[in-house]
Structure formats: structure tokens, C-alpha cells
Task: structure prediction
Amino acid sequence: MAALALGGLGDAASAALDELSRNFTYGALGAGNGSLSGAWYRRNQIHLFGVLLAILGNLVISISLNIQKYSHLQLAHREHPKPFFKSVLWWGGVVLMAMGETGNFAAYGFAPVTLIAPLGCMSVTGSAIISVMFLKENLRVSDLLGMTLAFAGTYLLVNFAPNITQAISARTIQYYFVGWQFLIYVILEILLFCILLYFHKRKGMKHIVILLTLVALLASLTVISVKAVSGMITFSVTDKMQLTYPIFYIMFIIMIASCVFQVKFLNQATKLYNTTMVVPVNHIFFTTSAIIAGVIFYKEFLGADFLTIFIYLFGCFLSFLGVFLITRNREKEHLPQSYIDFGNIPGKQMLDKIQPDSNGLSYGTLPDGSDSTKSQSGEKKEV
Result:
């Protein structure tokens, strides 16, 4: 009798382990990661829907950025420019930005963090393509190479990212939230954040690495909370209501607060450094932080083999390199003129030559026409 009971218990444990192994299997024949068979697509339909939402969201964001840039250029060429917030075109870009961010937000409810976060490179790639087509910017060799690498990295990411499907319920988030791995991670993150904030505020250190590391530390909390909120909303629509649990509102507050402070430090970085430096470094830091958060909090690489992890990281490296090549030296092609023409400033009259002809006889003379200056002793010296 005891043997039968132990046998039944062993069968139940084996069934549970088999179910867990099916959820966290990588590289299984015919259905695992990296396979392009029909079984792989049938198994990853939900993930592919999240990928499609993320890619479309990032492309819409790139369109919105170029529309806002175009509206600023139009306003700058007007004789009497009006504020940008009175431009219908600018507001159209803002609406598209909100739609793109909504698509990214929804994507976290259908696919793992480690799959959605690296797809931010699609925004940079799409922006480069749109700026060449509609803003008539130059298409460089580095742009083509960067786009190729970004697309290749995205292909590897989609095929070798975690293929686990988790039902993000309130109880699941509560279980992950009090796990010892996440608690240790949060403590270390808070300590590092406080140290960097001390050097930034008290010591006045405004290096780009410090600023964007602060952004990345906040971004990890943003990604965790965004997936939790999006996943619980998705679970509420498809299965059971989850919005009555306190953990939902805790995650919602963390999401809003981390986004606000993240934007604050990112704006400081963009004010102090060129966009060509901020964009690739921020993409690398944000993606790395999001991957670590997904691995620790949601355990998305549990059971993955070494080859899968290596190819996934190689795909991330290709996307990082592609973003760097696309943004490299882009602002240097649009340097402003080295002189100021006061005649083009509304309300200003041009009283005298700003840059006289160096070959003329009057070069270097004073505005009143005098051709001499006084030395410290009061004597006149010819210029």
C-alpha cells in the first residue's frame, strides 16, 4: 500500500517536472528555439504577436519623431515662427508617439522581456530610413551596414529568445516580488543608484556613463512593472479579473515613478552630450538592464542551454553595433554656420559689417572709421 502511495506521488512529481520542462525547453527537436519549422511557429504564435506589436510600435515611434523634426524645421524657416505646440503637425507626431508606446506596452503582455526590450533598435533603424526618404538626408555606407546588422540581430533575437509562456497573474507577481533573487537584486540596485546619485548631486559629476547608468537602473524597474501591469491586464481580459489585487496598483505606481525619473536623467544627458553619443549608449544600457531584470525577476532563461544563450547574446551584440553605426557622426553633417547674420534676426537692424572683407583697406578698423588707437601712455598709434 505504501509502495503504491509512493509510486503515485512519484508519478505526480514526474508529471509536474515534465510540464515544467516543456515550459522551459530550449532547442527541442522540431519545436525548440532556432527552428523554423511549422511547429515552432505554432508554438510561438503568442510571442510572435508580441514581437509584431513591438516592431510596429517602434516604427510608429520613429515616424512620430521624424514628423516632429519636420514640424520644427518648418517653423524655423518661417519669417514669424510660432510656438511648436501650436503646430498641428507637431501634435500629430505626439499622437503617433503615444500610439507607438501603447504598442510597446501591450507587447510586454504577450512576449518575454528579453525578447521585446532589444527590439528598440527597430526605432533607430526605422528613423534612419524615414529620414532618408522624406527628410532627404544622406544615406551613408555606415547606415546600410548598420541596418543590415540590426536586422540580422533582430532575426537571431526572435528565433533564440526564451520561448516560455507565462500567465502573468497577480499571484505570480506576488510570488516573484518576494523571491530572494529579486530582493538581493533590488538591494544591490538601490545601493548602486544611491552611490551614483551622490556623485552626481554632491560631487557634480555629470559624465554620460553616470547619467545613463542611473537611467538604466530605473529602466529595469520600469520594464518589470510594465510587464506586470500589461500582463495582469491581459490576464484580466482573457481569464480572470486581476485589477482588484493591491500588487497591480503597486506595480502601476512603480511604473509611473520610474518613468518620470528616467526621463529626467535622460533629458540631462541629452542637454550635455550629442544625440549620437546618447542614443547608442542608452540603447545598450537599457537593453542590458532589461535583460538582467527579465532573467532575475521572471526567470526567462531558466533551462536554456549554452548555445541558445550565446546566439541570443550575439544577436544583441549585432543590434548594438547596428545602432552605433547608424547614429555615428550623423549630427556632424548638419553643423550650423560659423557666423551670425544679424540681418536675418527679426527686429534687429544691421548697423555695420560683421565680417568685413579681409582684402579691403578698411579691414580691422573701428566702427567709427578711426584708424588709430591709444596706447596706455595716451599716445596714438597707427593701426
